[in-house]
Amino acid sequence: MPTYMTPGIYIEEVATGAKRIMPVGTSTAAFLGEAPYADAYLNEPVAINNPSQFIRKFTKQDSPGTDLARAVMGFFANGGSRCYVLNVGSGNPIAGDPRRREGIAALETVDEAKIIAAPGYADPLSYEAIITHCEKMGDRFAILDAPAEVDDIDLLKKVCTSGSLSDGEQSGEKSGLRARETVSAAYYFPWIEAPDPFDPKKIVRTPPSGHVAGIYARTDARRGVHKAPANEVVRGALDLVYKVTREEQGELNRAGVNCIRFFPDAGIRVWGARTLAGESSEWRYINVRRLFNMIEESIDAGTRWVVFEPNDARSWKTIERNVRAFLTTVWRDGALKGDSPEKAFFVKCDEETNPPDVIDAGRLVTEIGIAPVKPAEFIIFRIGQWIGGAGTEEAAAGGGQTESEGG
């Protein structure tokens, strides 16, 4: 409290209590793999903002193309604007030796990265390493590649076991070709065929994760993280290693395998938007999981000022007001259900959520409920014959009907 001695006018600036919560970024990717110059920045995450920067830092003259290089180029070609590259050197599974585990651990220091991929690494150990990293960090999502060649696509529906794996399991012979169930990853099949960025005249098989990560970034920028990154053209893809049929995708989609399909009138598109959480999970859609990741981290960062503040009604009301304002903005962006904020979310922080025993334990509890929008995965048109001029009820009662499905 200032001391006033001389009569006069005094102006004081006071805090209004409004501390805006800003949405965190969601489109920065991190790619792990073997760089064309295998010794460049080994196990060191390097920020890359354009293809030329990647070439300067991770290639030498006459460097051969690698899955990592093709993925990074595919990321930028499909709308990505910033990524981190972690060169793990040459070798087998990412988790196969201690140096590679050190490389993955180094990503923990890169708070900006929200999309994680290891282009071309399609073995249970690598899957497990990437998934475990994303689950540990809590704000990241993994894009996993299927193997380059799949003789029996039924194996894609089998879930790999985690933990200790035998030699046969590591190769996928016993445990299938898919990663374990998780809410923190999506799985894509098949690989694409695209020009080699280091020799455009050469068409090579390319893991789709880099291109898909670019599509995530492109969708985030154009529509928002709440929009499913699907029904999007894969830029740079000339063909597919395997042509998935409509019937095959029906089974794969239920198993959480996102297919990349070719349509004669629409080109090569990502045609799936599911996580590996399982068909019955409330987290089965990629955009729902990533939306919650964004909201949770944004609230975390935007309310850090509350730590060690008095645990009283004034703090409760300030938190409630700030979170409500943030979620109202998210609702206005189209990410939440309902025609009003009251139908889209609720925020509760009062004496009911913070009774004396909770306060004595040093805790301040806020309850938040969110109703996310979910993608229209199956589009159904019911069509029947109609007797011209008849009422709606008569028309609905007459004729057969057909259904058309899309996703």
Number of helical runs? Answer: 12
Number of strands: 14
Which CATH top level class of the domain at 29-289 fits? Answer: Alpha Beta
Helical content (DSSP H or I, runs of 4+): 25-40%
Question: Radius of gyration over alpha carbons?
Answer: 25 Å
Task: Give the secondary structure arrangement, pairings included.
Layout: E1 29-33, E2 46-48, H1 51-58, H2 67-77, E3 83-87, H3 98-106, E4 115-117, H4 124-137, E5 141-145, H5 167-170, E6 185-189, E7 192-196, E8 199-206, H6 209-222, E9 232-233, E10 239-240, H7 246-254, E11 257-263, E12 267-270, H8 286-302, H9 313-332, H10 341-344, E13 345-348, H11 356-360, E14 367-370, H12 392-397
Parallel strand pairs: 1-3, 1-4, 4-5, 5-6, 6-11
Antiparallel strand pairs: 2-3, 7-8, 7-10, 9-12, 11-12, 13-14
Features of the shown structure:
407 residues; alpha/beta; Rossmann fold; three-stranded antiparallel β-sheet; 12 helices; 30% helix; 15% strand; globular; Phage tail sheath protein FI; Tail_sheath_structural; Tail_sheath_C; Phage_sheath_subtilisin
Quick recap:
With 407 residues, the chain is α/β, with parallel strands linked by helices.
Describe the structure.
With 407 residues, the protein is an alpha/beta fold. The protein has a domain at 29-289: 3-Layer(aba) Sandwich (Rossmann fold), CATH 3.40.50. 30% of the residues lie in helices and 15% in strands. The protein is built from 12 helices and 14 strands. Strands 2-3-1-4-5-6-11-12-9 form a 9-stranded mixed beta sheet, sandwiched between helices. A hairpin with a 3-residue loop joins strand 11 and strand 12.
